[in-house]
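Batch job 17 of 40 flagged for manual review because the log was empty.
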Amino acid sequence: MQRTPGTPLNDAASSHQVGDADSPEPADDPSAGSPSSAANESGRDDDGSSGGRSWKWTVVFGGVGLLILVLDQVTKALALAHLTPGEPVDVIGSLLKFNLIRNSGAAFSLGAGYTPYISAVQITVALGVVYLSRKLGSAGWAVAFGLLFGGAVGNILDRIFREPSPFHGHVVDFLQTPHWAIFNVADMAVTSAAVLLVIQTLRGIRLDGTREHRQ
């Protein structure tokens, strides 16, 4: 068979090769490597805070506070119903007794005679804890704040609603250990909160959950 002069045999193939070589590579995804995508991959918002973190610790704070408050009020009601002032009951030998008293002072019967001022301080503390709870970013701080809030409110309710009069009410105490003042669940919670706050501070953990860089 005779080939027609001037007719290239590989025009189609050559045109495809040239087209393939000249075609631009697809552009990268514009979102790749951007600050927002990196932030999303790390689970943090643009402001550097972990999404939903503050709400989680606020719920922990509220749950612990409510638990302490309910436990405090229930145990006080049981003490009033089943104990007689001046008649202690041995629970664990001499290590723990139920001994019902009415306390006009602060924790562990301190500051008797200053009930209105103590009430004002406790209310201020409770409000301050609620305000600062918005910044919680640590389990330790959340639990400590819950213990502090529940304990403070538990004794505040006694001072407001119990005899002899509003804001002069006496707190119900009924737990007694050797060489220690008689106390209640609210007092235990406030003391535990103080210890936990000291531990968090010594560990260098701030309220928002970040850690101090010490040299």
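Reviewer: the log was empty due to a logging misconfiguration, but the result itself is present. Confidence is low (pLDDT under 50) at residues 1-52. Unflagging and moving on to job 18.
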